[in-house]
Design brief:
mainly alpha; 6 helices; globular; lipoprotein; YceK/YidQ family lipoprotein; DUF1375
């Protein structure tokens, strides 16, 4: 049972905004936001996970998705933004350093 819980946690964190922006490369984050046609121009590294999730919410709605599924996906992003906010708070020392060293993740 513990192994299943750990596997579920790992799978859920794979889509987490903090994991997307802190663990993965900048190019992967930029490509994902460009694919979703987000209107964000840059993502600051400080609280980058929560910002990434809000950029995903501020993307164009796909034409082939009905309103019910789109609202469910939006709710999932809001929950992920809350979890990302907590993880981003724990990672503040690292992300402050990365913001000073590398600057924001530019999308355009």
């Amino acid at each position: 049972m513990k192994i299943q819980a750990v596997m579920l946690t790992v799978l859920m964190l794979g889509g987490c905004g903090t994991v997307q922006t802190v663990v993965l490369s900048d190019k992967a984050s930029v490509d994902q936001l460009k694919t979703k046609k987000s209107y964000c121009g840059a993502v600051p590294r400080i609280y980058s996970g929560a910002t990434y999730d809000f950029c995903m919410l501020h993307a164009e709605k796909p034409d082939d998705v009905d309103a019910f599924n789109y609202n469910n996906a939006s709710l999932g992003l809001v929950v992920d933004a809350a979890v990302s906010g907590v993880l981003d708070t724990f990672l503040l020392p690292y992300t402050i350093y990365k913001q000073q060293a590398d600057g924001s993740i530019v999308i355009n």
